[in-house]
Amino acid sequence: MVKQTGKGRYGEVWMGKWREEKVAVKVFFATEEASWLKETEIYETVLLRHENILGFIAADIKCTGTLTELYLITDYHEHGSLYDYLKSTPLDPKAMLNLAYSSASGLCHLHMEIFGTQVKPAIAHRDLKSKNILVKKDGTCCIADLGLAVKWFSDKNGVDVPPKKLVGTKRYMAPEVLDKRLNRNRFQSYLMADMYSFGLILWEVARRCVSEGIVDKYQLPYHDLLPTDPSCKDMWEIVCRKKLRPALLSRWRSDECLRQMEKLMTQCWAHDPASRLTALQVKKTLAKMMESRDITI
């Protein structure tokens, strides 16, 4: 273990060394064994490996007399989370599209069921936010923090979801999660809730893209409408009752790339889950935007 790089509700994150390579080590409190088991199980899913999903290395339990530590060891990305990266880095359209496309690509792989000699179940993330996406050295992203994710095999009826009703980060919760309308027995409901959160992430990324020499400072979604740590009631009031969404910037209208990004985000955060785009639709749209700018994928 070299140095601590972060702290969360489940434990700590460290940068470690393994065979002279840097690795990230998520250390769970002993009381969070269920979270550790769940995240390990998701990372060990058949065919989950993908360049835009955080690379899993190992999981381990270390007992030092009185103390039990639960380790989850993954690839290390020094840029940290998309949240950290956006706070310090203004983007040009190419950088913006790289971040958006690679995130959509990872989410698309997660959401997809793959059939073959082995079957990869469809997986819903359930806590998608800019703090749970990491930025790699080449300016692309990978999806991380799969501790709340749920799997679904189409040959099984129903969804294997733990009974806890509200999960995720309040600020990123879809309207149907906030007003408890989410159909817990239909897997598609969880995928569409992810897409709402993804729309908010696209908004965060687009704000940091320079157009006409202007760039807006990083903000969290709904920063101007909510307290720093909003309650579910605060969120419900804004998102469900008033049906408000993050403010769209006027400068986006005069930039073709940002205009298309605005259209994408609004289609993702539609109030009605059935009206939202799927991860595959978002990925294909972003791929077309990149091709029209000769950006290699």
From TrEMBL:
Q: How does it sit in the membrane?
A: Single-pass type I membrane protein
Predominant cellular place of this UniProt entry's protein: membrane
Q: Which UniProt keywords apply?
A: ATP-binding, Kinase, Magnesium, Manganese, Membrane, Metal-binding, Nucleotide-binding, Receptor, Serine/threonine-protein kinase, Signal, Transferase, Transmembrane, Transmembrane helix
GO CC annotation terms, alphabetical: plasma membrane; receptor complex
**Annotated localization:** Membrane
The family database entries (PROSITE patterns) matched by this protein are listed as: PROTEIN_KINASE_DOM, PROTEIN_KINASE_ST
Q: Record keywords: Acetylation included?
A: no
Q: What's a Pfam family this protein contains?
A: PK_Tyr_Ser-Thr
Its required cofactor(s), as named, are: Mn(2+); Mg(2+)
Write down what this protein is called.
Answer: receptor protein serine/threonine kinase
Q: Which organism is it from?
A: Gopherus evgoodei (Goodes thornscrub tortoise)
Annotated Protein kinase domain residues: 1-290
- Which terms does the record give in the GO molecular function aspect? ATP binding; metal ion binding; transmembrane receptor protein serine/threonine kinase activity
